[in-house]
Amino acid sequence: MLDLLENPETKNTDSDDSEHFAHYAEKAKVTEGYIMGTPVIALCGKVFIPFRDPEKLRVCPDCKEILDALFASSE
Q1: What are the residue boundaries of the structural domains of the chain, listed by start?
Q2: How far are the Cα atoms of 2, 7, 20, 23, 73 from residue 56, in angstroms, in the given order?
């Protein structure tokens, strides 16, 4: 039996389809998402199913800000 865990910090992609960004997420999860069509939780909390070439999209400003803060704190 599987348990469903809900994360209140996540955002649904159905509400704002007007903006498409390339998000930062775990590489293995993104690869699995491309192959299996499973949702991935980005660093910013957005839930998405990868299906486009991220090189053709703008980087999510929230993901970038979080990643920059993580690298700045590790120095």
Answers
A1: 13-73
A2: 36, 29, 10, 12, 29
Closest CA to 63 of 53, 48, 52, 51: 48
Q: Which residues pair with 11 in a beta bridge?
A: 46
CA gap 55, 57 in Å, rounded: 6
For residue 14, the one-letter residue type is D
pLDDT the model gives residue 49: 92
Q: pLDDT, tens digit, for every residue of 38-69?
A: 999 999 999 999 988 888 899 999 999 999 99
Local structure of residue 46 (DSSP, 8 states):
B
